[in-house]
């Protein structure tokens, strides 16, 4: 095995940035939340649509949406009695596509 001739690795992110990014990945690390994010890739949805599409009860959906909102993955807007959610990070669609392709190649 050869010796590494590289100089020290340099990280351009601050600890705060890396911690925030880790929080996003943690928020995405639950199957129900991933399912909801995938539903939101087609555009904004009312909470009731996310609930019926996931087959989970409303309190579970609200809890998961709160986690996604706290980490900046989704944004919401209240219109009348309904609350609509949308992705705050549309780039997640590319991430999902890339990861699904990687999984399919295994």
Automatic annotation (TrEMBL):
- Domain of life from the UniProt record: Bacteria
UniProt-listed CDD domains: HTH_ARSR
The HTH arsR-type domain is annotated at 13-106
Q: Which SUPFAM superfamilies match?
A: Winged helix' DNA-binding domain
Q: Mind listing the UniProt keywords for this protein, alphabetically? A: DNA-binding, Transcription, Transcription regulation
**Coiled-coil regions listed:** none
The record ties this protein, via SMART domains, to: HTH_ARSR
Q: Which residues cross the membrane?
A: none
UniProt GO MF annotations? DNA binding; DNA-binding transcription factor activity
Q: Report if keyword Disulfide bond is assigned.
A: no
Spell out the Pfam families in the cross-references: HTH_5
Q: Which NCBIfam families match?
A: HTH_metalloreg
Question: PANTHER family recorded for this chain?
Answer: ARSENICAL RESISTANCE OPERON REPRESSOR (PTHR33154:SF18), TRANSCRIPTIONAL REGULATOR, ARSR FAMILY (PTHR33154)
Q: What is this protein called?
A: Bacterial regulatory protein arsr family signature
């Amino acid at each position: 095995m050869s010796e590494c001739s590289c100089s020290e690795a340099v990280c351009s992110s601050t600890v705060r940035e890396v911690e925030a990014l880790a929080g996003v990945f943690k928020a995405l690390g639950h199957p129900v939340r991933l399912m909801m994010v995938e539903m939101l890739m087609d555009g904004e949805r009312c909470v009731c649509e996310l609930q019926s599409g996931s087959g989970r009860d409303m309190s579970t959906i609200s809890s998961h949406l709160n986690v996604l909102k706290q980490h900046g993955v989704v944004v919401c807007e209240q219109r009348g009695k309904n609350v609509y959610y949308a992705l705050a990070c549309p780039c997640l669609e590319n991430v999902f596509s890339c990861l699904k392709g990687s999984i399919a190649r295994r």
